[in-house]
Amino acid sequence: MKIHEADARGIFAGYGLPVPPSKMITKAGDAKAAAEQLGCPVVVKAQVLVGGRGKAGGVKLASTPEEAVEKAEAILGLDIKGLTVEKVLVAKAVDIDKEFYVGMIFDRGSRRPMMMVSPAGGVDIEEVARTTPEKILKLPVNPEGGLMPFQVRRLASFLSSDKAVAKQIGKALKGLYDAFMGSDASLAEINPLVEDPDGKVWAIDAKINLDDNALFRHPEIAEMRDDASEDQGEVTAREADLSFVKLDGRIGCIVNGAGLAMATMDMIKHFGGEPANFLDIGGSSSPEKVLSAIKIILRDENVKSILINIFGGITRCDDVANGLIVAKEKLGLDIPLVVRLTGTNEVEAKEILASTEMIAALDMEDAVKKAIEAAG
Ligand code: GDP
Ligand code: MN
């Protein structure tokens, strides 16, 4: 689950990170009072669940309360990567001397949580990794002992040779590690962590992604979920108990089982296609689930064909087939459906689908090739 910068700032502040004070508003007019209370200059920031807001015009400085209102007016309603800005954060601005990147992620290679820092902060860290990888220091952390003092020193001195500044950075790194572990995050990032002209360190951006499977341990964080700011397909999928991740390709996928769904995506790529999504309809698949799955996939205008790949175990192929018939009738589906159903009740399923225009596939390879061809 993703949460807004404002909420992530709150969590970070709770772990002692140096977060400048801020106020969340939804009406531009309220920026005046917020700016007066915080003291100018302030920075007005779009609260949407995507990065790169700065580049998209969603982060603006204001030196007077009146200007804060103007900036809030300009940002509210803005479209950033398909999401409409409905809330903005007014935060006390910091004078920036240096910008650093600091982040905690899970590293699959070392199978550990890993801290990653760079003196080239403020910009896209993937870009730094591509062009100047030597500007990134990564240290895996043994979760049993936690982030060690020698690691903190090494990371902090990689960012600053000034002892007083490095000390503050070190403290921030410990806070970041504790916030990451303490909230069961899959990612916790401050980009940028900055040094002001007086040598004071501030966390002026905040990003935390939570592990959905651990949210039951953090009811106060679970409440921070903001459905309105998420990809609506993913919201609907969660409500329908489907596991769905949107991707950028042209071939919609409806599969049962996460493993088969991954294998299906791999195979699509292997034969030169691009999947439009990952979608696992799960073990017990009623016709309603199939209908919801198709609805979710059809929201995506890029989708030019849909591949249904079902291995019937507990899932009955005839249930899936009935779901497809209902979907075709109800939704007036006009894009090609390629269907591969095998296993429990496959004979019944084939009879049900025999009189339709759906493209039947013999096996997985055949299905994938037909779906790619149908997508054009
Ligand atoms: P992002 O683009 O979504 O990552 O949003 P950020 O919060 O990182 O803001 C983008 C950029 O705006 C930062 O890298 C800074 O250069 C600038 N910025 C944000 N807050 C402040 C601030 O308090 N003072 C100054 N001078 N610049 C800021
Ligand atoms: Mn940022």
Could you name the key traits of this structure?
Rossmann fold, six-stranded antiparallel beta sheet, binds manganese (II) ion, binds guanosine-5'-diphosphate, alpha+beta, 3 domains, D-amino Acid Aminotransferase, Chain A, domain 1, elongated, 376 residues
Distance between the termini: 34 Å
How would a crystallographer describe the biggest sheet? Answer: 6 strands, antiparallel
What small ligands are held by the chains? guanosine-5'-diphosphate, manganese (II) ion
Radius of gyration: 25 Å
Write the layout of secondary structure elements.
Layout: H1 5-14, E1 22-25, H2 30-38, E2 42-46, E3 59-62, H3 65-75, E4 79-80, E5 83-84, E6 88-92, E7 98-107, E8 112-118, H4 125-131, E9 137-140, H5 149-159, H6 163-182, E10 185-195, E11 201-203, E12 207-210, H7 219-222, H8 232-239, E13 243-246, E14 251-255, H9 258-270, E15 277-280, H10 287-298, E16 305-312, H11 317-331, E17 337-343, H12 346-354, E18 359-360, H13 364-375
Parallel strand pairs: 14-16, 16-17, 17-18
Antiparallel strand pairs: 1-6, 2-3, 2-6, 4-5, 7-8, 7-10, 8-9, 10-11, 10-12, 13-15
Helix pairs in contact: 2-3, 5-6, 8-10, 10-11, 11-12
The protein binds guanosine-5'-diphosphate and manganese (II) ion.
Manganese (II) ion binds at residues 191, 205.
Can you tell me about this structure?
The protein has 13 helices and 18 strands. By secondary structure, it is of the alpha+beta class. It has 3 domains: 21-92, ATP-grasp fold, A domain (Dna Ligase, domain 1, 2-Layer Sandwich); 98-222, ATP-grasp fold, B domain (D-amino Acid Aminotransferase, Chain A, domain 1, 2-Layer Sandwich); 231-375, Succinyl-CoA synthetase domains (Rossmann fold, 3-Layer(aba) Sandwich), CATH 3.40.50.261. A hairpin with a 2-residue loop joins strand 4 (79-80) and strand 5 (83-84). It is elongated, with a radius of gyration of 25 Å. The two termini are 34 Å apart. The model has no long low-confidence stretch (mean pLDDT 94). Residues 43, 45, 51-54, 59, 61, 93-94, 96, 122, 191-192, 204-205 line the site of guanosine-5'-diphosphate (GDP).
